[in-house]
Design brief:
Blueprint: E1 2-7, E2 10-13, E3 18-26, E4 33-39, E5 46-52, E6 57-59, E7 67-71, E8 82-87, E9 96-103, E10 108-110, E11 114-119
Parallel strand pairs: 2-11
Antiparallel strand pairs: 1-3, 3-8, 4-5, 4-9, 5-6, 7-8, 9-10, 9-11
Length: 120
């Protein structure tokens, strides 16, 4: 089993910044990708950003240029242990519960979610 602990959510004004963290523990040896997803009320969960063990990244179009995903281990090795999501120039439409996801070749795990609220 893999446990994910997210932190860093909160309330911020439009134009502000927040940094989310997701730390893994447990059987993490096979974790080769981690990502942040978000779900706003009445909407489906969507990918925000994703990073692999080789540090390849992918972003949703809506956050490109404003959000940056990074990892704690710069040596591009498996496993990923901690990832961060730096969110700048936040907009009210970024308001959602943000979930961390850790994936291996065979399965995936979700964190409990952290609320991000951007006021206008």
């Amino acid at each position: 089993q893999v446990q994910l602990v997210e932190s860093g959510g909160g309330l911020v004004q439009a134009g502000g910044s927040l940094r989310l963290s997701c730390a893994t523990s447990g059987s993490i040896s096979g974790i080769n990708a981690m990502g942040w997803y978000r779900q706003a009320p009445g909407k489906e969960r969507e990918l925000v950003a994703r990073i692999t063990s080789s540090s390849s990244t992918k972003y949703a179009d809506s956050v490109k240029g404003r959000f940056t995903i990074s990892r704690d281990n710069a040596r591009n090795t498996v496993p990923l242990q901690t990832v961060y999501l730096q969110m700048n120039t936040l907009k009210p439409e970024d308001t959602a519960v943000y979930y961390c996801k850790a994936s291996s070749t065979w399965t995936y795990y979700w964190g409990q979610g952290t609320q991000v609220t951007v006021s206008s």
